[in-house]
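Dear all,

This email documents one entry for the complex benchmark we are building for the journal club exercise. For each entry we list the sequence lines for every component of the assembly. Then comes the predicted three-dimensional structure of the complex as a token string, followed by one or two observations. Please use this as the template for your own entries, and keep the labels exactly as they appear.
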Amino acid sequence: MPSKTHVQTTINGEQVDFLCEPRQSLLEVLRDVIGLTGSKEGCNDGNCGACTVVFDGRIVTSCLVLGVEAAGKEIGTIEGVASGSTLHPVQAAFLEGAALQCGICTPGFIVASKALLEQNPNPTEHEIRFWLANNLCRCTGYDKIVRAVQDAAVRMQEA
Amino acid sequence: MATTEYARNVVLSSKEYDVVGTRPVRPDGADKVTGRALYGADFNASGLLHGKVLRSPHAHARIKSIDTSKAEAHAGVLAVVTNKDLPSGVDGGVRDLQRNVLAADKALYRGHAVAAVAATSPHEAEEAIALIEVDYEVLPAVLTVQEAMAEGASILHDDLRTDEGGVKGDKPTNVAEHFRHDLGDIEKGFAESDVIVEREFNTATVHQGYIEPQVASALWNTDGRVHVWCSTQGAFPVRDEVSRVLGISESRVRVTPMEIGGGFGGKIPSYIEPVCAVLSKKAGRPVKIVMTRREVFEGTGPTSGSHIKIKVGADNQGNIKAAHAYLAYEAGGFKGSPVGAASQCVFAAYAIPNQAIDGHDVVVNKPKTQAYRAPGATNAAFAMETVVSELAEKLGIDPIDIRLRNVPKEGTRRAHGPAFPRIGCEEVLQAMKDHPHYSAPLDGPNQGRGVSIGYWFNVGFKSACTISVNPDGTISLIEGSTDIGGSRASISMQAAEVLGIRAEDVHPTVVDTDSVGYTDVTGGSRTTYATGWAAYNAAEDVKKQMIERAALIWDVDADSLEMVKGVTRSKTDSELKMTFKELAAELNNTGGTIIGSGSLDAGGLGTGGGSFAGNIVDVEVDPETGKVSILRFTAVQDAGKAIHPSYVEGQMQGGSVQGIGWALNEEYYMSDDGTMTNSSLLDYRMPTSLDLPMIDTVIVEVPSPSHPFGVRGVGEANIVPPPAAVAHAIHNATGVWMDRLPMNPAAVMKANWSK
Amino acid sequence: MKWIDYASASSVQEAVDLLKGGGARPLAGGTDLIVNLRIRRLDPDTVVDVKGIPELNEVSYDASKGLTLGAAVPCYKIYNNKAVAKAYPGLIDVASLIGGTQIQGRASIGGNLTNAAPSGDSIPVLIALGAIANIAGPNGTRQVAVEDFCTGPGKTVLKQGELLVSLSIPAPVKGSGAQYMRFIPRNEMDIAVAGVGVSVVLENGTFKSARISLASVAPTPLFVKAAGDALVGKPVNDASIAVAAGIARDAAKPITDMRGTIEYRKHLCEVLTRRGLNVAIERAKENK
């Protein structure tokens, strides 16, 4: 079998080295090689957003990135959202606002929502819904998710 | 019109408690917002292998032979299995299950599992299944109930005979069962009617659409025990199914439920669990299979498409005199559609003196249908509610008023036999009528408002729970209901209420099948109801033992003590009292900890009266494209007693949106040869956040007569009314009555063109 | 997915050298390519990452020369570029509706074009804007008008070893406006049932020129020259627009599939052309 590729990257601020096959997606690498299982696979074709990560400052679906493309990049995952044992305001708002039911889509929504609020601190309901249209949730009907993002916006401005 | 000033989300509360009815943070929440919660796919084990399933490319084919030799020789492959690796000689229901998890002589739908491979990586397993050679004799496929019931239709099962009220037919058929419920005399009822509306409907096959694909891991251990880790709505039912498919006793199977990423009924049955087990037995190592999204669509539980005819007659005052329903539901490749439940729901929101319901369970070349949130009821309500709204229009009666005029109450007799206990149908309809949404003006052309109501049972079934008291005054609560949407919280809160402690002082854990008593599925709107009741019983047991312990400590008669809001005290001596925390701290010094247990069978279908849900919806229809936009949506539901109102609202909002998706766009779009052509989350078109408004809720509380807190399960009824409410709104916007689901833009445009 | 090799190119020449032996596909945003590898619609042995090539990352706009848009520039960098957003609102229409936010973080207009899906959202507006594809290959460079680029579903004029380097879009002239309008059942994250890209140049209340192109109603994106030509010299009014919309409808050659019937899709082409022209006209009037 051909050999694996050595990749050096930065994940949640830490330098990480890993070996992967070029056919392995970044999502597979995060979950199966590195052991960061917070990013979830719902569709493996970019349509559910459960695997959303920050890739060099922009959110992407990690199922549509090859692991080898991570070389030299900065990657942010759900595991890097909280500061130690303190939840990020987006996490706190989701938790306290009952914005999750089964929770499988939650990591993707939190990573995407945090990215939205960092570039648009006071989004309208429509802007929130537009930004999050690449993240599917089948449990909540999105109502409490949209409200949690609105709540998080307030929390972040007060912080 | 008088309206109540409702907040966006309001609880019309029946009774106040200390913990029940509050909104604490859920106990499993921190893990779920940080990515730490372990779902099925996050399982790992030493030496774990990865499995892949080979699936039939044909919707209907005889399997003449399977050659696995090339796959077995492929690099990294440790095991290949087919149906021949499962024990033979099992009886009917288990045989169907066996043949669904691995096809025997026939593939009955495209996506039907035919063989499976375990290898050292998922990519190698995928390469290997492509090397399995299957010789198929392709047969004609039947894809709808009409096709399957037609004369000369291609037959799925040569040995299937129609069950006609217990009597078997004498010729091969695709109709597994025909039954009829009768009440009164419908001929007389129609003769007494001034107006009769009779319509025919078709609804497409739809999928539950959970975001987490099915996943399972299994280890067939050297001691002969099988350990399964999976995403399931019920660890015990999986244990029982796996043991039956494998032909071993239940106690040799242990199922550990991982966190579950949605189910909605689709994660009740086993698919890959027994396959992982036989692969593990062959390979001698644990095996994990994760389905792809396409496998989820092609190989797991959609819910039934259906063909429905409804005839309703009423007098000029709107009193419904007679109704008939013809229900034909797709079962998929094996018998067992939810048409039975549908027959008990179709007229549930009406007191109709004369009624008859004919139900047909029909096999077709699609995946075996499974439960989907109020299974069967949504299709039926779409048809019945549309007919009732048309009847109201014909009679010039307000659509809520006609429903109130015929509202069922405690004692209303139903066609399948039982009478309702106390129910909240009238209260739900009244809350809809009182809601400001119902009287608000529409603010543009091409807009319309619709209403409808729907019903779903509470299933009772069996649950168990144990509670141990910790020295710091908290309790550890052990239960077996997989938590699919916050039930750890709603179960814990019921125990906390009994013991007079805070919700945060309960630490619940969902455990494996070796660690708690038998607990049925998380489904049937039963978990907060029945497992919550088991927790209530366990807490009462703890309470009794705490009082006995205090009596021992104080050397008094236990009968002289009581526990009120967590304080154990003497009924006569005001000096004698201890808080829950104080008493808990004494337990280890006075005989050891206290463990309370509760288990029950909370009854079958229809326990406690069930729950009614109603909708008010405003839509705008683009007259040039047929596209329907949901402008405003209000969901009303009877929760009996909302234990955690936020999660009750969440159920109402989520169910409503699934109903909206079913109404507007979701469907299995089948090619003529039986291939689902839209088997991706891009093309299946579930609603995104951008397709919806906020979903306002009104929780009505009409306590269930059976449950200690009056809980009614709220998980399902909310999906029932939306398609009919949307259809009614489309009618009021465009003038057309839609008679099919989905009411996608092309269908609405076509209806507009033909009006 | 079968085993693939990965190579990263840092220059156009290096990419061409890697591609010319065959069995290789360029990887830009990967949002189509990786899916196609997974379902084996495409079966290369090697993917060549072209995102490290300066020319493929170029976004340069000059009010006289127009826009050069590198083939690997992700959508978000297009709509976040204020000068481009102001000059080419029609291009921004598509950059902000391809996929969703996450897809737009990777997907490129060049990738959308080379993927050559009949439903490719960017292609009609590129055609309407008169965009030119700049191609490099073993035999040097060449230019192809975008309306001639796609030859069938998933098929393009690119020959073995050739690489789409960039797109050149003419500078917008005074009185010009463009629009892309698609019809989808959802509000985002969907494939066009039909799509229409239009551009117009107005002068003294008449159409000086117009270009109209359709998506999802033929094996390739369809340039309906006659529809635009029918507007030239005509007054800007509903009657003129109706004529063009009718020609667009008649030119569409859709199939009946899960996205819609022939009748419905042809009807949509008329509706979308009319609506798209009205938006483009408004934009043109503001573009003084």
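Observations: Chain B has three domains: 1-12+421-458+606-755, 141-417, 462-601. The domain at 462-601 of chain B is CATH 3.30.365.10 (Aldehyde Oxidoreductase; domain 4).
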